[in-house]
């Protein structure tokens, strides 16, 4: 079991508009538009799941093998971490 | 808790706060020096100094004091009072200035925004030719302190157009603006609306080879509300909004106000086609989103 992923709620504002989730980093002021699988991953980051559980849930939703998408999900999570939008722990 | 103010109350407040008297104006406010062509806000007040020697001090509840230079240009004074000073008064009283010119149609406001020189005034004057009355020129005030829908207040600035814009739009020149602007005050052919109305649409004016209308959806509607015009900077300073507050405000506007890009060539033929395109979409909006 890897670390549980949680949104850095004190460092962001987010809203859903049309089919997108827009997240703003309160530290940098940068906007992030999440659509498609990015949006789906964001919604799975709920403070209860680790990376493996997120990959498993996403694989089930999209009907693909977890191994097929694990690398891309991990890269996306790394981007969110670097932007200060999520925490591991 | 008192109920939110009505747009009519907001308009009356703005009128009261815009009273002008003449006298000396300081060079600093709240311990901060105000350089030429700069403004400073502090504790419900705004100080603005100009290179020409004009100084303007607005204090909430006390109106505007104007300091004139030795040889004042009345045209310049009117421009400052109707421009930056007007924006500052609005901002300090909770009204958000958007850098836009607008027309009214079917009880709603359709606003056109873009950088200085993007053609905002010419577009609304052109729409006047198509029968749509002017709502405001250059500065659109919305009232985020009021209830939904987001209401816009009619502009107090007279329409200003260059010679070529007068020719293209058929608007009647009513006087020189002065202050070396080369512009004329103008009366638009579609008349003027002077009552507050809900803001329906914000259209971004852009340049391109063919007239084209593109709706803007999703998160771009929030990002598009980033504006480096002084009116928005004044609003943020006056309201002390942090990034979270600003995001919440822009989200509220983006959820309510439809947005589009109007791309067109900057030529007389392109102008006529773009006005027709805009008028068609405004009328279509009324059918698609009936009140």
Going by CATH, the architecture of chain A would be Alpha-Beta Complex
For the secondary structure, the number of strands of chain A is: 5
Number of strands of chain B: 19
Radius of gyration of chain B: 19 Å
**Basic shape of chain B:** globular
Structural class determined from secondary elements of chain B: alpha+beta
How would you summarize this macromolecular structure in one to three sentences?
The complex is a heterodimer of chains A (89) and B (291). Chain A has 89 residues and is of the alpha+beta class. Chain A has helices spanning 36-44, 51-62, 66-82; strands spanning 5-7, 12-17, 20-25, 31-34, 86-88.
Provide a descriptive summary of the structure in words.
The complex is a heterodimer of chains A (89) and B (291). By secondary structure, chain A is an alpha+beta fold. Chain A has a single domain (5-80), classed as Outer Surface Protein A, domain 3 (Alpha-Beta Complex), CATH 3.90.930. Chain A is 43% helix and 25% strand. Chain A is built from 3 helices and 5 strands; from the N terminus they run E-E-E-E-H-H-H-E. Chain A has helices at 36-44, 51-62, 66-82, and strands at residues 5-7, 12-17, 20-25, 31-34, 86-88. Chain A has a 3-stranded antiparallel β-sheet with strand order 2-3-4. In chain A, strands 1-5 form a two-stranded antiparallel ribbon. The radius of gyration of chain A is 13 Å and the shape is globular. Chain B is α+β, with helices and mostly antiparallel strands. Chain B folds into 2 domains: 7-93, no CATH class; 97-288, Rossmann fold (3-Layer(aba) Sandwich). Helices cover 33% and strands 30% of the residues of chain B. Chain B has helices at 7-17, 74-92, 120-129, 163-169, 220-223, 230-239, 243-256, 268-288, and strands spanning 20-22, 28-29, 32-33, 38-42, 45-49, 55-59, 63-67, 96-98, 100-105, 108-113, 134-136, 140-142, 151-153, 159-161, 172-176, 184-187, 197-207, 212-216, 258-264. In chain B, strands 8, 9, 10, 11, 12, 13, 17, 18 and 19 form a 9-stranded mixed β-sheet that branches. Chain B has a 5-stranded mixed β-sheet with strand order 1-7-6-5-4, with helices on one face. The mean pLDDT of chain B is 93. The chains are: A alpha+beta (89), B alpha+beta (291). Chains A and B meet through strand 2 and strand 3 of A and helix 5 and helix 7 of B.
């Amino acid at each position: 079991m890897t670390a549980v992923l949680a949104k850095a709620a004190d460092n962001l504002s987010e809203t859903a508009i049309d089919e997108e989730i827009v997240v703003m980093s309160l530290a940098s002021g940068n906007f992030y538009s999440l659509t498609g699988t990015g949006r789906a991953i964001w919604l799975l980051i709920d403070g209860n799941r680790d990376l493996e559980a997120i990959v498993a849930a996403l694989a089930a939703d999209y009907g693909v093998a977890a191994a097929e998408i694990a690398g891309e999900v991990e890269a996306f999570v790394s981007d969110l971490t670097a932007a200060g939008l999520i925490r591991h722990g | 808790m008192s109920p939110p103010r009505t747009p009519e109350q907001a308009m009356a407040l703005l009128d009261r706060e815009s009273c002008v008297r003449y006298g000396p104006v300081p060079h600093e406010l709240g311990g901060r020096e105000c350089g030429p062509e700069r403004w400073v806000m502090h504790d419900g007040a705004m100080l603005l100094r100009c290179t020409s020697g004009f100084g303007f001090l607005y204090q909430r509840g006390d109106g505007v004091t104007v300091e004139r230079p030795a040889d004042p240009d009345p045209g310049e004074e009117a421009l400052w009072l109707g421009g930056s000073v007007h924006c500052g008064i609005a901002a300090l009283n909770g009204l958000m200035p958007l850098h836009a010119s607008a027309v009214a149609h079917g009880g709603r406001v359709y606003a056109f925004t873009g950088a200085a020189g993007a053609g905002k005034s010419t577009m609304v004057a052109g729409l006047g030719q198509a029968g749509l009355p002017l709502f405001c020129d250059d500065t659109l005030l919305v009232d985020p302190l009021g209830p939904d829908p987001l209401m816009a207040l009619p502009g107090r600035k007279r329409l200003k157009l260059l010679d070529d814009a007068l020719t293209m739009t058929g608007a009647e020149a009513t006087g020189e603006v002065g202050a070396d602007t080369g512009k004329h005050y103008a009366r638009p052919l579609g008349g003027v609306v002077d009552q507050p109305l809900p803001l329906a649409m914000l259209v971004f004016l852009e340049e391109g080879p063919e007239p084209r209308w593109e709706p803007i959806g999703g998160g771009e509607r929030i990002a598009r509300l980033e504006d480096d015009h002084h009116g928005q900077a004044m609003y943020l300073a006056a309201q002390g909004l942090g990034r979270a507050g600003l995001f919440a405000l822009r989200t509220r506007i983006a959820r309510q106000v439809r947005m589009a890009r109007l791309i067109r060539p900057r030529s007389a033929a392109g102008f006529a086609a773009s006005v027709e395109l805009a008028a068609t979409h405004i009328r279509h909006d009324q059918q698609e989103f009936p009140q």
